[in-house]
């Protein structure tokens, strides 16, 4: 049994900041207690690794509930166009992405995420087998969905691929495989019905883009989609920017989860989602960055600050509720139970923040979460732990060779960019 002691830290525990220690056995939090760890009263019958986290804050890991990891290959490509024009530039290069390119881009994307305090992510893309392999090798937690469309008549082969990956990872402790119908304008109602049927049969998640643009609102309403069964507690509806009162009621009545991507929506001229009205209906919200080609970062911390500020004319949330939107809600949406809080029996997915910086003062317990949201940034992340293992610690990536990843990524980039 591996035991880690995280001592002398500020800890978010039971919605309050305490100063104390956390004991982790293997991949699970065994104890959260105020005060310093005392080895003289320790009941552990094994050696342990001790970490002095003085002037550090332990938070649940951030959840990037929707992204397209391999699209870091396209970061900075089209930064001044709305979604429809942006897609035209992107699709040309996506057609040149090899399996190897997808693998190394997903590795590098995970490096970016853990360095910014993200411990779990939800993804939708092709070559999902390579993404899952990259997650298995690197060590993050993830919901991987294979992007599905039927406008070209090739749904069956994509579904077969999706189900093959599902069966390969069905018992994996950190990876879940879901279904990723791209959007109602690329998936027919028959396609959506088939996906819902499989989801119900296997009990797996569905991730779908909905009402991202005003153009989409002219193509369909959520009422049009009710007959497909796409709305349920197993569905992650991404964006939902152009939702009217009826759309919001449908989402609420079906317990569908909404993933908000405010930075991407602003950058692509999509608009601002009616989050206040959704929260008034008790709709569960989590955050996603979308892909790095439209954000351009995989930084959920930045997403959290934007999310709060752009919706302030609708609703003001408590700092603890904002932290949950950026962490626990994402875990729940993706189907990961007993993760996203720092309490006994929960899996040890943690973000460690360095508070010994000018923008965290006055350094008093009742202001720390406010500092995190309004004056802190992801550059303050000291360490990131997933499933009890350090993936990032004091500037070092613990499971990969940084230089090798960069070399392989740059090779992949040149292949994608070639004419």
Entry summary:
The protein is α/β, with parallel strands linked by helices.
SSE arrangement:
Blueprint: E1 3-13, E2 16-25, E3 28-34, E4 49-52, E5 56-60, E6 62-67, H1 83-94, H2 99-115, E7 118-125, H3 128-138, E8 141-148, H4 155-168, E9 175-181, H5 189-202, E10 206-210, H6 214-219, H7 222-225, E11 235-239, H8 245-253, E12 257-260, H9 262-267, H10 275-280, E13 285-287, H11 300-310, H12 319-326, H13 328-333, E14 350-354, H14 368-374, E15 381-386, E16 389-393, E17 396-397, H15 402-417
Parallel strand pairs: 1-4, 1-5, 6-7, 7-8, 8-9, 10-11, 11-12, 12-13
Antiparallel strand pairs: 1-2, 2-3, 5-14, 14-15, 15-16, 16-17
Helix pairs in contact: 2-3, 2-15, 11-12
Describe the structure.
- The protein is α/β, with parallel strands linked by helices and 419 residues long.
- The chain has two domains: 118 residues, Urease, subunit C, domain 1, CATH 2.30.40.10; 272 residues, TIM Barrel (Alpha-Beta Barrel).
- The chain is built from 15 helices and 17 strands.
- Strands 1, 2, 3, 4, 5, 14, 15, 16 and 17 form a nine-stranded mixed β-sheet that branches. Strands 6-7-8-9 form a four-stranded parallel β-sheet.
- Helix 11 packs across helix 12.
- The N and C termini lie far apart (53 Å).
- The model has no long low-confidence stretch (mean pLDDT 95).
